[in-house]
Design brief:
mainly beta, elongated, 5-stranded antiparallel sheet
Amino acid sequence: MEGSELSNSEATYYESRTMKIETKQARKGLKAKHHLDMHSHAALKSFSNSGYTRVIEFTRDGKIKTEYQNGKIVGQKLSEFIVGMMQEPVIGGDPMTTIAELVYKDYNSFEHNAHVLIPDFDLGIYEGIYDVRFNIIESDPANIKMSAYTLDGNAVDNLQISDFVMKNTTGDKQIIDAMSFSEEEQAYVLTGAFMPGTIETNGVIVQSNIMYEGARIDLNL
């Protein structure tokens, strides 16, 4: 998320000498700008009109905004989750952008049930899990040359041999005897005695403040 702003509006009324009628209810909202590629935009859009109806907010100063209701900590109730159209990049302009807006069900709910958590860790150092895609460049039973990159096209060049999991077609693990990385080709070379099967990461790979997870691909020899 690159930035956010409130999209609140106060209630409006019709007033005369003898009456006051609410003509439009107060609205509590939060609008955020995201730099996303096409895949991430589609993932974000999938939350529109979905079963996700509550949201927990993480603030800039490291706090977590929730509500306390009926003895439970819950997220704030949403009435709408609006994902705007994908704004494609232009020369000299911003990268691909998506505007998303949260509209809360009832602004009074947080005011009456606010529960703010202060974690004992720094939320700002965590960037989330990056999906990694593998691309096999060359392969034979002894050597597999492959690249690894995130969905936005950035090469992942710091994986270790233990970060890879190879299995044969029956699901048994295959041993990787050695691994090297070519800076020039931005490619890993895995060495062993391989059979057809699959390649993936060993679960979620945690590296300092970045985490990676690789999608499984088929290995055809």
